[in-house]
Design a protein that fits this description.
Strand 4, helix 5 and strand 5 form a beta-alpha-beta unit. This protein has a four-stranded parallel sheet with strand order 2-4-5-6, sandwiched between helices. Strands 1-3 form a two-stranded antiparallel sheet. Helix 4 crosses helix 5 and helix 5 packs parallel to helix 6. The protein has a single domain, classed as Succinyl-CoA synthetase domains (Rossmann fold). It is globular, with a radius of gyration of 19 Å. By secondary structure, it is of the alpha/beta class.
């Protein structure tokens, strides 16, 4: 009748942290409706959200990721993604993160920003170097490491012979990655 409301479609978003309580709802998940990169990230326990920019961001911790993206924008760049590799980052996760970031053709440079509170920065440096070699990273990579064994990690990267630029702080890293992305 006139004035009635008819629902033609419905969509819901489920918090991944509720999986253990909402198994029946998660079973109805239609992966074809999801961004392919975001779905692939879930398989590797990575928190990834696609954005519209050209600077890939790999960060550990959601708060640090937000601050990183804010600084990239402050210095004139635009993030291509939000990617939180988490606190228990391994070389394999870093490699998967690079694969996800580089699967986006818009990415012209990558900023890796890691704070090693739990995770050791020298091990992250090993993972970055391995990923750059294994994945075939063909865009500039800027790395900022801070925290546990950061000096050792930065030294490894500087002496690796790979096309990896290191930065002393986050502001410098953001400026460098924005400049690198603008070159192309």
């Amino acid at each position: 009748t006139a004035g009635d409301l008819i629902a033609l479609d419905a969509k819901i978003n489920l918090d991944d942290n509720a999986f253990h309580r909402q198994g029946e709802l998660f079973a109805m998940r239609d992966v074809s409706q999801e961004d392919p990169r975001e779905a692939a990230a879930k398989e590797h326990d990575l928190n990834y959200i696609t954005l519209d920019g050209n600077i890939g961001c790999m960060v550990n911790g959601a708060g640090l990721a937000m601050a990183t993206m804010d600084l990239v924008q402050l210095h004139g760049g635009t993030p291509a993604n939000f990617l939180d590799v988490g606190g228990n980052t391994t070389a394999a996760r870093v490699a998967e993160a690079f694969k996800l970031i580089l699967s986006d053709d818009k990415v012209k440079a990558v900023l890796v920003n890691i704070f090693g509170g739990i995770v050791r920065c020298d091990l992250i440096a090993d993972g970055i170097m391995q990923a750059v070699q294994d994945v075939g990273v063909n865009v500039p990579v800027v790395v900022r490491l801070e925290g546990t064994n950061a000096p050792q990690g930065l030294a490894k990267l500087a002496n690796s012979g790979l096309a990896i630029t290191t930065a002393a702080d986050l502001s410098e890293a953001a400026k460098r990655v924005v400049a690198e992305a603008a070159k192309d």
